[in-house]
Amino acid sequence: xxxxxxxxxxxxxxxxxxxxxxxxxxxxxxxxxxxxxxxxxxxxxxxxxxxxxxxxxxxxxxxxxxxxxxxxxxxxxxxxxxxxxxxxxxxxxxxxxxxxxxxxxxxxxxxxxxxxxxxxxxxxxxxxxxxxxxxxxxxxxxxxxxxxxxxxxxxxxxxxxxxxxxxxxxxxxxxxxxxxxxxxxxxxxxxxxxxxxxxxxxxxxxxxxxxxxxxxxxxxxxxxxxxxxxxxxxxxxxxxxxxxxxxxxxxxxxxxxxxxxxxxxxxxxxxxxxxxxxxxxxxxxxxxxxxxxxxxxxxxx
Length: 301
Ligand SMILES: C[S@@+](CC[C@H](N)C(=O)[O-])C[C@H]1O[C@@H](n2cnc3c(N)ncnc32)[C@H](O)[C@@H]1O
Description:
Elements lengths: L13 E2 L19 H9 L7 H11 L3 E4 L7 H6 L4 E5 L2 H14 L1 H5 L1 E5 L11 E6 L10 H14 E12 L3 H7 L3 E7 L6 E11 L4 E12 L2 E13 L3 H10 L2 E8 L12 E8 L19
Parallel strand pairs: 2-3, 2-5, 3-4, 5-6
Antiparallel strand pairs: 1-4, 6-12, 7-8, 8-9, 9-10, 11-12
Bound molecules: S-adenosylmethionine.
């Protein structure tokens, strides 16, 4: 799995308060905390392959927009800057704080179009509906249990306005590359764009094809010359989902998949496709099946 594919829990939703803090005591996934949140932005500083597609979808379907797992605002901020009213929900306080810092620089008009909410995308209630809901950049893969995936889809359906569109994009498992690279340690280096220090990212992924779970061990180190300034480790897991499984989960949750695109240029799916974009609408002819009562992490073991 290529380096840029590796993206990345507890509950309640809370809005950012006036002092720049989020009141929710939710627990973020470790790969989106502290050093990792900062590293996310460094790693994705020039990644915008999906942005034009989302700008186009927002123009076509209109406001308001909701982004599930908005992170540091990689997509949310350009969408707001283009004039869209957008709410972003994320579990990670550190990712949201970085998003807010970038919004503060962006200017008042853009910042006023944005609402940031700290919460769990498997169970939130915003009390309003949206014309476009996005789960971009592999966010759904954080649902390692099927009932979590179903919970996210059920919540999205509840928040979708009549005629609205739910967009899910994720990478298609490349089994050959997973088998070849599984268990191998890989090391990447980038230069910190502000401090000029060297960031070393040591990464090992293992793939369990029976449980369909990828486990990733990451160690980040920041070096100033020969001095180690800081380091952080995280073990994270992601679900391995094939397109048909996600389509079935969407159908089960009361959506119909109106279109599937290969990648972000709206092309047809082909054998070599790496990313898939599902454009979903509410299936008005079939009611959704009963969603799971509680997300997996709350279930007794
Ligand atoms: C791969 S990042 C994508 C960030 C952003 N959408 C982008 O395109 O750059 C996934 C984001 O989903 C968030 N996330 C994962 N599980 C979540 C959950 N259960 N509830 C809310 N946010 C979640 C993570 O904190 C992270 O910021």
